[in-house]
Amino acid sequence: MASLQPLTALGRREPVTVTHGPLTIAERTDVALASVAARKGRMADLAAAARAAGVPLPAPAAHQSGTPYSAFWIAPEMWFVEAPFASHELIAEMLKSALGEAASITEQTDAWVAFDLAAPDLAPLLERLCNVDFPVVPAGYATRTVMEHLGVYLIKHGAGAVRLYGPRSSAQSLLHALETAARSVF
Amino acid sequence: MIIPHPILGPRDAQEFVYLGDASLIDRPDGMTAGIEEFHDYLYQRTNPAGEHQELWYHEQGDRSWLVVTRNTVTHEILKVELARDVARARGRTK
């Protein structure tokens, strides 16, 4: 049996954290991710199973935090579910057994790179990168948007706290875009 | 141009991809329709100066297909619906 070393989306052993003035960009490798989609006509069953399993299914364009499962809406009757990687590495299988036949579940952990952005105010940075009206949308807002030609999910946890999920194979490009914008702001 | 998404509210047209005439929803039955009917479905489009129903895909958003009713003269958007709802209202099962 080969002994394999897990690599981060940026091809390293450990997640990367970079700072530009007041901004911190922290790669997150401790999040497990799976998509949950209601099967046709099974939304009521999924809602009941999710409630029993403690999986939040928030309203459109929203993120809902919970322990261990958090979730954000990505499409009608479809969500991304987050959980701590250490305890939920097999998140897809865990959700499958919790939610049963009402939902189609797909492992997403290694399809994305996650960056947490932290600064006193992220609006000047994000208005250079995407068309989300960041100061106007409430905390708990989650949407798909485009940054530097890359489709990313943006979750606003607060005026100075954002989680980004970008395509894993373009992790370096997304980080480069973030750093370039950061240099012109901070 | 801003498209008022029925679920997500006003979104920039940049996030969408345009497919074409919403008559694409009404595909003839491949087992029973004749070649003429399929030819018309594939190639014949009206080109109205005025109200027009179009399919738009929210690619950089929630990946939903929308039926946008738009005035091709004034570019005014009159109505936006989920294509799924429109198709079901026309008797489709998916």
Main β sheet profile of chain A: 6 strands, antiparallel
Secondary-structure-derived class of chain B: alpha+beta
* Mean pLDDT across all amino acids of chain A: 96
Low-confidence stretches of chain A: none
Q: In what range is the share of β-strand residues of chain B? A: 35-45%
The ordered H/E elements of chain B are: EEEHEEEH
Quaternary organisation? heterodimer
What would you say the CATH architecture of chain B is?
Answer: 2-Layer Sandwich
Number of beta-strand segments of chain B: 6
CATH topology of chain B: Folate-binding fold
CATH class of the largest domain in chain A: Alpha Beta
Describe the structure.
The complex is a heterodimer of chains A (186) and B (94). Chain A contains 5 helices and 11 strands. Chain A has helices at residues 43-53, 85-88, 91-99, 123-129, 171-185, and strands at residues 17-20, 23-28, 31-38, 63-64, 70-75, 78-84, 103-107, 112-118, 141-147, 150-158, 161-167. Chain B has one domain: 2-Layer Sandwich (Folate-binding fold). Chain B contains 2 helices and 6 strands. In chain B, the strands form 2 sheets. In chain B, strands 3-4-5-6 form a 4-stranded antiparallel beta sheet. Chain B has a two-stranded antiparallel sheet with strand order 1-2. In chain B, strand 5 (65-71) and strand 6 form a beta hairpin. Chain B starts with a strand and ends in a 5-residue tail after the last helix. Chains A and B meet through strand 5 and strand 9 of A and loops of B.
